[in-house]
Amino acid sequence: SHLHIFRKSIEEVIRFAAEERLFILADEVYQSCVYADDTEFYSYKKVLSEMGSTISSTVELASFNSVSKGFMGECGLRGGYVELVNLDPAVKEYARRLFSTRSCPPVVGQMALDLMANPPRPGDPSFPTFSEVSSIKNMICKNTDRIQEVFAELPGISCQPLKAGFFVFPCLHFPPKAIKWKRQMEPDMLYCLHLLEETGLHVRPGCEYGQRKDSHHIRFNIMEDALQRLKTFHTRFMKEFS
Length: 242
Prior knowledge:
Blueprint: H1 2-20, E1 24-27, H2 44-49, H3 53-56, E2 61-66, H4 67-70, E3 80-85, H5 89-102, H6 107-117, H7 127-141, H8 144-153, E4 157-158, E5 167-168, E6 171-172, H9 176-179, H10 187-199, E7 204-205, E8 218-221, H11 224-241
Parallel strand pairs: 1-2
Antiparallel strand pairs: 2-3, 4-6, 5-8, 7-8
């Protein structure tokens, strides 16, 4: 099953780290944004703890989470934390001092982080408002079918099913006229610049992410308004460069 494959891949990473004495830095900021029916979040710490004492007590791990990306994709709320596992106590104390003196997010970010780690419960005064926000988040997460429908309608664009997170990485299949622009800039960069100028929508080109040679992508937010603007622009762009 997919779940077995996900867990097995984590175990393989941990075993490799144990053999090579590597420190694992686990970026787990999207752990609360997993919504596909056949998918669930696996914590590196949990998997590590279940792999036997020889490995579970020796592999060093840092797990990162963030309110900036993990809860609502609200990058304006800067705040996050890191959990350190199996570190030497002296090193852990040095890290604590370093974070305390050099890292101080804004107060609003700290409040948001506290709410993410310890959300309101039924009976708390703020629980009704929190429930409304959570329903908005769930609505965004369940927008994946709509995304697949739009991409299926558009020529020259394809995308793997979205299972988690707030971004998709669709593949763009450009007509030859657009490819010719490669002498001046990468075609997906051209696409992003036109998209920004015409719609005000900012996305990142795949050429910035080490994509496979002669392939083209964009990194795109899954919000409904952004999807509609992309749909209108993409149709016009493909006609212009066909």
